[in-house]
């Protein structure tokens, strides 16, 4: 008789696990059932801001594989609009609620993949029935916001609360849709995903675009009229608005896991081993935005919800369930984004992270250009490097620039992954041609500057 | 009494050495004299095609630092239009000819930097007084071609002989200037800097641009009228032309070095140790397009004339002459170029190189896109990886694509530099956001495909 794999969550991690398992084990060997509470499978959450802005059409465009494809090509029994509400590890079964038809079903499993994703952080003031307040995590969240923006009368003013990636990307998206946008940030500065000196460049660019940025400001409540949001109440008065988007980050969706007794780690996310097994829980796997993983630089467990990790982790789980061997060996915190034409890339530790992890370090900021200085279209590029003292080992890097900047982080990410020192990095053989780099690539210039800083510090 | 440093060649390597030495030793400690036979110091040879095309203005734009700057800011006695014609190692002096005023001078040295660069390969048929035939290596070469193109009657047809980087870039440049361009290549295909399957993509793009490409064709002579070139004689008839550009590569400029008894290596270029010292020749250093260096993947000495290496090598020599410590640890053959909007990057060994070096390997070609499939402006990208069998160690990589392709080679170059296996590479934490990459970056897709190929091969 066939074994049975149950997948909780039909997005990147869950469906990557399911498809990889199927590649290695056919239906006679492994039945696969996937429960998804939303309307979509395997979509790009990261693409939602670009759908909101109108840069890409959606939501179908954002779906890599729809339920029908999984059913037909992968022989996976995808149950849409089904929310798993309980996991019984002793009886080896899950209970799922049919959100459309009502009622519950129970399904037994031999193997279980927990891929319940993450949920947007929603402070007390946002836990309300007032309409027009949106978290941004799922494609359903995006669809709800799109509907709201297209409702009559059309919203003209938006407040984005929180200035991380999602907040910044949503601010741009709403601006591109023609709304007047205010970004409210509790800290001194939004874009804390990079250090303050680098974030300053992003903030300037956002202001130039016309985003109103209010910093050091906490939201305490909402104003409403007829059940619709009309304003955001802050310590400095009320900011009138027709829509509120929460950009306060996400938390791993672990309620169900905790109820079932799955172990959570220090980050609050589900613990997994390198093969994506939940420790001490035979036959149970977890992957994606609900799990924590090793940060290879700090050595600490971290929760980094990002599609690229979710895909890799799901694939690893699926290969292992399929009888193969694969490991997920951690992350180094690489991320890229853009604010209109301004590109931002980061990898490794920020100064604050490095300090928190106990490292002694130097940090340098090098100004350069994307192309040879004389080549048309050359634009400023700022590269920041953080290197351990005295070893010189790279701990982190950040890049901000107007073109060909974001993905330059990849070379730095691979250097970091391999534990290179900044001294070793000055020798790197990177691509050089006038349309693509100065004869000393910005990355090399920064590495040289870091070497100098290490020597000065020791002298 | 101050010591004396003589630098032969005032381009990237020589002047980087001079300036680095000056940073560490002042004039009272070290006099520096640099001889340059041409009209320019420290310029971008790689920028010449873009000057020819009119994309950048020149020649001043291409000069990073002019002689006056070296004199004033670095206290370096730069002697322009002086060609060193002899090195006497016993007497520790060089003889230089004044190409303008006539006559010769002798100058003693304590330290000598040999940075004489490279000279374009010029087959017997091109060793002629016929006007309108140009090698492309120095800014003076570029100036001569510019003058010719602007002469009256203006040349309308061009033949580029040889399809390496310079040939391909010059073909594009001449086309952009409005000439009808024929590229003559002796081999089956131009652009042999990448493997044939990848070169095919470049050739298609060049044909689409309107470059006439004639392959498998050797040039045997020139036709002339009134001392000006009128045609290129080949085995398949004469190709009429008003100008001939040689793109047959360069050879290290070693005549002077060989006369002086400096050791040449198997590549034909000057041998140096890791600190850029000429072995067994105290006080003599060499750097730039005239030296050979270690290819870190094949382990063989290679001659790779490229501005980025010249700068690094010159810097290393200068730091060491200045009393510091620096090494040049070799190259891995990274290079990028473009043909109009088509971008090409490579690093490490091609299939032919890998075979010649004795490696067993698999190679895979993966088709993907530069951005998320749904994101506007996404374009096809082809990534080829060559991995050692059975170890899986990356040996080489090539990328061809229409945008954001060339510099993606950097991540691969750093992976190669660090000896990563393709299996390890599938785990790399590269930058992901829809405007910059699919959720599986093209590099990761290729790595996965290479892993599969290794396993299939072993199965």
From TrEMBL, chains A, B:
Domain of life: Bacteria
GO MF entries: oxidoreductase activity
The keyword Chaperone is annotated on this UniProt entry: no
Cross-referenced Gene3D superfamilies: FAD/NAD(P)-binding domain
InterPro entries according to UniProt: FAD-bd_OxRdtase, FAD/NAD-bd_sf, FAD/NAD-binding_dom, FAD/NAD-linked_Rdtase_dimer_sf, Pyr_nucl-diS_OxRdtase_dimer
Keywords associated with the record: FAD, Flavoprotein, Oxidoreductase, Redox-active center
Transit peptide among keywords: no
Cofactor dependence: FAD
Stretches assigned to the FAD/NAD(P)-binding domain: 4-301
Family statement drawn from the similarity comment of this UniProt entry: Belongs to the class-III pyridine nucleotide-disulfide oxidoreductase family.
Protein name (record): FAD-dependent oxidoreductase
Naturally occurring in which organism (per UniProt): Micromonospora globbae
């Amino acid at each position: 008789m066939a074994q049975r794999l149950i997948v909780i969550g039909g997005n990147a991690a869950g469906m990557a696990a399911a498809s990889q398992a199927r590649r290695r084990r056919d239906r006679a060997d492994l039945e696969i059932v996937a429960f998804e509470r939303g309307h979509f499978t395997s979509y790009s959450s990261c693409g939602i801001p670009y759908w909101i802005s109108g840069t890409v059409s959606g939501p179908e465009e954002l779906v890599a594989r729809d339920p029908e494809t999984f059913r037909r090509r992968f022989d996976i029994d995808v149950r849409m609009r089904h929310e798993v509400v309980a996991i019984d590890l002793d009886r080896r079964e899950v209970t799922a609620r049919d959100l459309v038809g009502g009622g519950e079903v129970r399904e037994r499993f031999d193997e279980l993949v927990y891929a319940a994703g993450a949920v947007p952080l929603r402070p007390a003031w946002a836990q309300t029935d007032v309409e027009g307040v949106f978290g941004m995590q799922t494609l359903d969240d995006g669809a709800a916001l799109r509907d709201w923006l297209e409702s009559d009368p059309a919203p003209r003013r938006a407040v984005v609360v929180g200035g991380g990636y999602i907040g910044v990307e949503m601010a741009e998206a709403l601006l591109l849709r023609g709304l007047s946008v205010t970004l409210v940030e509790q800290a001194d500065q939004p874009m804390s995903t990079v250090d303050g000196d680098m974030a300053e460049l992003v903030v300037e660019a956002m202001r130039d675009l016309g985003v109103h940025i209010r910093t050091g400001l906490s939201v305490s409540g909402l104003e409403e009229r007829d059940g619709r949001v009309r304003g955001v109440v802050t310590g400095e008065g009320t900011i009138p608005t027709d829509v509120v988007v929460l950009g306060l980050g996400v938390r791993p969706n672990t309620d169900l896991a905790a109820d079932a007794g799955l172990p959570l780690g220090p980050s609050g996310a589900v613990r997994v081993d390198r093969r994506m097994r939940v420790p001490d829980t035979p036959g149970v796997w977890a992957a994606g935005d609900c799990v924590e993983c090793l940060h290879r630089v700090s050595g600490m467990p971290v929760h980094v919800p990002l599609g690229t990790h979710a895909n890799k982790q799901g694939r690893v789980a699926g290969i292992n369930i399929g009888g193969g061997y694969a490991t997920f060996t951690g992350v180094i915190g690489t991320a890229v984004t853009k604010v209109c034409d301004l590109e931002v890339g980061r990898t490794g530790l920020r100064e604050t992270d490095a300090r928190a992890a106990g490292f002694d370090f130097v940090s340098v900021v090098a100004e350069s250009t994307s192309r040879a200085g004389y080549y048309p279209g050359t634009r400023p590029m700022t590269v920041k490097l953080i290197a351990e003292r005295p070893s010189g080992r790279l701990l982190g890097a950040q890049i901000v620039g107007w073109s060909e900047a974001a993905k330059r982080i990849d070379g730095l990410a691979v250097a970091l992954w391999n534990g290179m020192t900044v001294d070793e990095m000055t020798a790197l053989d990177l691509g050089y041609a006038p349309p693509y780099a100065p004869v000393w690539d910005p990355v090399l210039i920064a590495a040289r500057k870091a070497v100098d800083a290490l020597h000065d510090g020791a002298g």
